[in-house]
Sequence to fold (274 residues):
Amino acid sequence: MCADCQRPTLFMRRKPGPMSDDVDSALDVSDLPRRELETRIKQMFKDYSHNRPRSLQTALGPSEIGSLCKRQLAFGVTAGELGKGSNISGDPWRSHVGVALHKEDERVLRWANDRAGETIWIPEARVKANDEHPGSCDAYHIPTQTVIDWKHPGLSMFTHYRKDGPSWKYRIQAHLYGKGYARLGFPVKNVGIMFISPASDLYHGFLWMEPYKPEIADLALNNLESIKALCKELDVVNHPERFAQFPITPTDECKWCNWWSPVPRGPRHCTGQQ
Fold:
C-alpha cells in the first residue's frame, strides 16, 4: 500500500495463482524457442500423417466400405475425381499410434511362425472383396481358418466395444476381409476382431469372433454400388451441392471423417449433425 494515500501501488506484487501463472507463461519470451520447436514437431507429425500412402489413397478400402453414413460413402466414391477430403481439424496421433502398433503386431506373428517352424499365421495379406476395393488384412489363423483384424482403440471406446461388441462398420470390415481370403481360395470359417487398447493392458484385451457370413460382405458391397449409381444420376461431380441429398448418420467417430469440419467451407464438408 502507498504510505500516503493508502491505495495499492501499481507495482504491487501479484499473488501467485492459476490466472497469473497463465499470464506469466504467455509473457515469458524466454520460452519461445521451446514453444516454437514444440509446434514444429507437432506439425511434422501432421504432415507425415497426411502424406502417408494410405492417407493419399482415394479408393475406399474395407475399413470404410462398411460406413452407415451414405454421405460419407458418396464423398468417398467420388474422391478420385474431386479429391480426398482433408480434415485439418482432426488429430492424427491416434492413427499414428495405430499404424505403429500394427507393424509391431505383424512382427509378433512372424516371430510366432519362426518359433513354431511352420506358418500358423499369415500376416498383412493383400485381399480383394471385389476388384475395385482391395485392402490389407491383418491376420489369418490357419489352424482355425479365422480372419482377424487388430483394433487398438482408446480406453473409452475400448470399454464400449468390450461391453457392446464391435460397431457394424467394424463387423462389415471383418467379413469383407473374409470374402477377400475366400476369393483367394482359402477356407474361411470365422472372422474376428482382437481389441487391445494401448491405454489398458493385454490382460483386458478380448477377441470378438463370429462365423463368416459372405452375405454381410455382399450387403455392404451392394450398398456401395447403389451409392455410386446415385452419384452418377445426381451428377455430383459437376453439382457438388447435391451431396446434401445423401443422408448422414452421425456417430462418435464423425470427427475422424476426412470430410468432417465444425465450420463447413463448402458442399464437401460436414458437421456430423443432422
In short: The first strand starts at residue 121 and ends at 128.
